[in-house]
Specification:
Blueprint lengths: L11 E7 L4 E8 L1 H7 L6 H19 L7 E10 L2 E9 L2 E8 L11 H5 E11 L4 E8 L5 H11 L5 E10 L3 E11 L17 H10 L4 H4 L6 H9 L5 E4 L4 E2 L5 H8 L4 H7 L6 E5 L4 E5 L2
Parallel strand pairs: 5-11
Antiparallel strand pairs: 1-2, 1-10, 2-9, 3-4, 3-6, 4-5, 6-7, 8-9, 12-13
Length: 296
């Protein structure tokens, strides 16, 4: 079992398994990477927390894949609320995200997802390179948190009992820190045992879920508590195997060459309409808040 005394590391993912209980999980913390992403736009504080939650959720799902094995995209489209669009993605440890919102709307702490988004849905898409597989989960934006919405989807649609916890702490003055935990119960057939009936609550899962559910926001965002230390608090009576995951870093794949390649796919007549009086096409990347002037 892991022990106390290991220094905490920000911008980190740590995978773990509880073999005797047929459970697996992931811990994520984003610090400097989170602040670098948030700095691209002047978001109100409640929307900073919303985007931080979405970025942490994206990293949790993305880090469970093998490194360089595809991309995870989390996107919320909505109408009638403060937020029009939320988009985050993860690829090989590179994390990015942004919000498009009504800057004239009044935003306050504690707003529910329907109040923030109006009518909309959350879509999680996983593209895996090695298996050439793609799956997507779509859940309604209901309740008070993105993690709770996705947690329910895993259990109901994927029949994969799941518990998720996400915490965000900080301020504009001190900076932001976010942490996340996901724990899932593996089907017995995946590890050589008998297959559980869908919806059956196995005592092993009830035990693991009860322990994981005690995780607090304060623990997830405690800069002095390492991932190993948190696992020790939760599962010190269990044998836990840990596997370090990829380090989250701010990633934006926009570049002059990539954008030019995309623009070349448009007919010349359309590109002519895009050009300014200097013959350049301006492309605005919302992820990194940069404008590229391209000759194409």
């Amino acid at each position: 079992m892991v022990t106390e005394g290991i220094a905490p590391t920000a911008d980190r993912t740590l995978g773990f398994m509880v073999p005797a209980r047929n459970a697996r999980g992931m811990l994520v913390r984003v610090d400097a990477t989170l602040n670098a992403i948030l700095a691209a736009h002047p978001y109100p504080e409640p929307l900073i927390k919303l985007l931080a939650e979405a970025l942490t959720l994206t990293a949790l799902v993305g880090a469970t894949m093998r490194q360089d094995d595809g991309q995870v995209t989390v996107q919320a489209s909505a109408k009638g609320g403060v937020v029009d669009l939320l988009a985050c993605d993860w690829r090989a440890g590179e994390l990015r995200g942004y919000l498009k919102f009504d800057d004239q709307a009044v935003v306050s702490e504690g707003m529910s997802l329907p109040e923030l988004f109006g009518k909309g849905y959350l879509a999680v898409t996983v593209d895996q390179v090695s298996s050439e597989e793609r799956w997507q989960g779509i859940v309604p934006l209901e309740g008070h948190g993105l993690a709770a919405a996705l947690e329910g989807w895993f259990g109901q649609s994927e029949q994969l009992p799941t518990l998720m916890r996400i915490g965000v702490a900080g301020s504009a003055a001190t900076g932001w820190l976010a942490g996340g935990l996901i724990v899932q119960h593996l089907a017995r057939a995946e590890i050589g045992g008998e297959r559980l009936d869908s919806g059956e609550q196995h005592p092993d899962w009830e035990h693991v879920a009860a322990l994981a559910a005690t995780t607090t926001v304060e623990e997830l965002t405690d800069a002095d508590l390492s991932a190993e230390g948190l696992l020790w608090r939760l599962f010190h009576e269990e044998q836990v195997r840990v596997v370090p995951g990829p380090k989250p870093v701010k990633g934006c794949r926009c570049s002059q060459a990539h954008i030019r390649e995309v623009l070349q796919r448009f007919p010349e007549s359309e590109r002519a309409d895009m050009r300014d009086d200097k013959g350049l096409i301006s492309v605005d990347c919302q992820f990194c808040s940069r404008v590229f002037a391209i000759a194409a």
